[in-house]
Amino acid sequence: MSKIKVKSFLSILASKVILFLSQKFFKGGSNFPGKIALKIDKNILKTISKDYKVILVTGTNGKTTTTSMIYNVIKENGLDVITNNTGANMLPGIIACFISNFKFKNNKDKYAVIEVDEANLKFITEYISPEIITITNLFRDQLDRYGEVYTTLNKILEGIEKVPNTKLLLNGDESLLGDLTMPNEKIYYGFQTSLENNNKIDINADAKFCKFCKTNYSYNFVTYNHLGDFYCPNCGYKRAELKYAVTELIDVNLEGSLVRFNDHEFTITQSGLYNIYNALCAFSIAKELEIEDEIIDSSFKKQTSSFGRQEILKIGDKEAKIILVKNPAGYNQAIDTLCLNKEGFSAAFLLNDNYADGKDVSWIWDVNFEKLSSQRISEILVSGVRLYDMAVRLKIAGLPHDKFIVEEDFEKLTNKIKECSEEKIYVLATYTAMINYRKHLHSKGYIKKLW
């Protein structure tokens, strides 16, 4: 205890007490204890993180699932590891995570796999020099907060500039992450094969123009949105050489995927190309930590969904899968997943416009809901703060409005789900809509663990 400052000691103690009370009586409190700790000691993060080898995960989509995969692989390898699994990815939440795991006497080597909000990275790297920072992708998200993708990139680079000795593990298929003028060691992962051999980028894709000469990119293939094997036909800028890659897509179905990363076969238990990206990132981190393929595969096979990320629940006799959707790129991937269905299903669309969702909901017009018009959807449930905006968008997309069930109240929405004619229901919800609906389901006993 003599090695820690009195201010830091009081900060940790006060935060631990508040954390205990918050979790016991309010079933939450992932940010507030960190705020209290910062009030007492503004440098507390440096103290509580100093014994950890830290891996930071940032980017627009896939942070929570990728963080969970990396954490589980490291744990499967028998190493001591912590993570912020509640998704509290801003400075106070990250501080609360470290404090909840803090011990005054602990000399063991240990890892921390931490999800970080893009705009908060610079606050974290002020106090932590990570072993690795990984960036998943950059898409338009919360336009009122981030603006366009270049704004998001600049916010992330502000954080990286503070840690020039940190290794960067980057998505090579993300054109915005190539040729970064940073002194850091850079390693890239990506796809060396594609599912549909499509080389035409969508008109609403996020980063269509060369970041050096502004010419339209060409592609050997596109995976989704603007990700893929890109090159500029004008200035010659192209995708970096990949150290870790998807070399074969053996099977991609509604339940998951069987793929080959480099020279080894892996089973991924969650569907969609975006989850293959998440797993590839986790695999790349694991290989940088010299973890064996067999251990990685074993961990992947045990991987369960993080809350709200393809989480499957029983609501009455219905199987409801909750899918977080927060921007056009992610929503289109979720729709592609729904389109893998061979049988009929029902779907609920929950749209909110709270701060964490982004106040501007115009992005739903860049989502390709039209793909769903040819699917066998028996009931179309619509809810959330902006339910009428969503209903209009779905009607314009060609979904049959006579199947619409528009219901703001969660109790009534749940009853309507229980009355659906299909056994399988997909609930596509923006962030706070997902959080609030899960809280409602928890209060009714449909979910045992809220976080």
Describe the protein's architecture and organization.
This protein is α/β, with parallel strands linked by helices and 451 residues long. The protein has 2 domains: 6-302, Mur-like, catalytic domain (UDP-N-acetylmuramoyl-L-alanine:D-glutamate ligase, 3-Layer(aba) Sandwich), CATH 3.40.1190; 309-443, Mur ligase, C-terminal domain (Protein-Tyrosine Phosphatase, Chain A), CATH 3.90.190.20. The chain has helices at 6-25, 32-40, 44-49, 63-76, 91-100, 121-124, 143-146, 149-160, 273-288, 293-302, 328-338, 387-396, 410-418, 431-443, and strands at 52-58, 80-83, 110-115, 132-135, 167-171, 186-191, 218-224, 227-231, 244-252, 257-261, 264-268, 309-315, 318-324, 345-350, 377-383, 404-406, 424-429. It has a 9-stranded mixed sheet, with helices on both faces. The chain has a 6-stranded mixed sheet with strand order 12-13-17-14-15-16. A two-stranded antiparallel ribbon has the order 7-8. The two termini are 32 Å apart. The mean pLDDT is 92. Keywords: ATP-binding, Cell shape, Cell wall biogenesis/degradation, Ligase, Metal-binding, Nucleotide-binding, Peptidoglycan synthesis, Zinc. Residues 57-284 form the Mur ligase central domain. Belongs to the MurCDEF family. MurT subfamily. The active site is at residue 360. Zn(2+) binds at residues 210, 213, 232, 235.
Descriptive keywords:
451 residues, alpha/beta, UDP-N-acetylmuramoyl-L-alanine:D-glutamate ligase, six-stranded mixed sheet, 14 helices, 17 strands, nucleotide-binding
